[in-house]
Amino acid sequence: EKRTMTLIEKNGYHDSVYINAAKIFQGIHTEKRKDRILVRYGDDAVSPLPTFKDEYSQRVSYELAFNALKYQDLLEEILLDSCVYPCQSIPDDLTSLLVVMLYDLQDRKFQAREIFDEEEPVAEVQKIERYLYSFRTKLAAALAKCRIKHGALSIEYILPESIRQQQERASALPLCVWINTFKISLQDVFRDLKKKGFTRVETVSDFDHYTYCMDQHCHDVLLFPSSLKEELLHSDLFADCKLLLQ
Questions:
Q1: Residues 73 and 34 in one domain
Q2: Could you report the per-residue pLDDT of 166-225, keeping only the tens digit for each?
Q3: By residue range, what is the domain housing residue 215?
Q4: Which of 116, 142, 165 is the last residue of a domain?
Q5: Cα–Cα distance for residue pair 46/54, rounded to 1 Å
Q6: Could you tell me how far CA 45 lies from the centroid of its own chain?
Q7: How is 105-170 classified by DSSP, letter by letter?
Q8: Are 128 and 178 part of one and the same domain?
Q9: Ordered alpha helix ranges (H), the chain
Q10: In angstroms, rounded to a whole number, what is the distance separating the alpha carbons of residues 99 and 26?
């Protein structure tokens, strides 16, 4: 049975994810004071609600939108310094799409997107992608200039200290995973995880990489070390929605 994943690791997202992430970002982006507005995002009132084809698509759309929000100031600075923005052919109501796609492009080290399973293309996404990719050298140079200005090895170090501390705390929390008992039994999950090399331990304090434990209060919830997030999300248990990330 062929399984399809919405995200091809570090190779980009499907068009629908960019559209949904842009809709989410349009509603959450930071509004600047009128005398400081250099990048315009159009009218929030006309932005339609996102529609998701599955839980995985929903999760990565929100992740992309919130990553763009986290780095909004930096992404705007890159667009302005590279002279990629403003552009007469890109209306204000596509600025959110421009920003979320720029975040993803820099996250891929300005490499071309590769999607291996078919999905109907979205004209706006294709337009913005071609535009950004044609200026990838200027965009990369603007990013490098920002990093030098801030003395930062990576964009994570450009974030305010308070946000970096929040990220570090969040990354240390265990992953909370629901067992979808409509599709698989607890015992079958335990058996499958054992085949994959996982060891069941008593508590999170016993975690040692390929380990997991039961939640003390919910019998259909498992906890995993946070370092296993990407590996778990790309496993067949998640692809088949037998396990769901809380």
A1: yes
A2: 777 776 789 999 999 999 999 999 999 999 999 999 999 999 889 999 998 888 999 999
A3: 173-245
A4: 165
A5: 24
A6: 24
A7: HHHTTTPPP---S-----HHHHHHHHHHHHTHHHHHHHHHHHHHHHT-SSGGGGS-HHHHHHHHHH
A8: no
A9: 15-28, 55-70, 72-81, 95-107, 123-134, 136-150, 161-172, 186-195, 229-233, 236-239
A10: 10
- Omega prior to 160 cis, within 30 of 0: no
Q: Are 85 and 79 in contact (CB under 8 A)?
A: yes
Query: What whole-number distance in Å separates Cα of residue 11 and Cα of residue 110?
Result: 10
CA atoms of 46 and 51, how far apart (whole Å): 15
Among candidate residues 32, 11, 31, 28, the one with its CA nearest the CA of residue 20: 28
Name the residue with tokens 């008992």.
Answer: 181
Non-local CB neighbours of 207 within 8 Å, separated by 6+ positions: 174, 201, 213, 225
Question: In this structure, what token pair is assigned to residue 113?
Answer: 């997107």
**pLDDT tens digits for range 110-137:** 999 987 677 889 999 999 999 999 999 9
142 in the same domain as 24: yes
Lookup result for tokens 């590996």: 231
Amino acid letter, residue 118: E
Q: How much is the pLDDT for 11?
A: 83
Please report which confidence band the pLDDT of residue 157 belongs to, taking 50, 70 and 90 as the band edges: confident
CA 56 to chain centre: 11
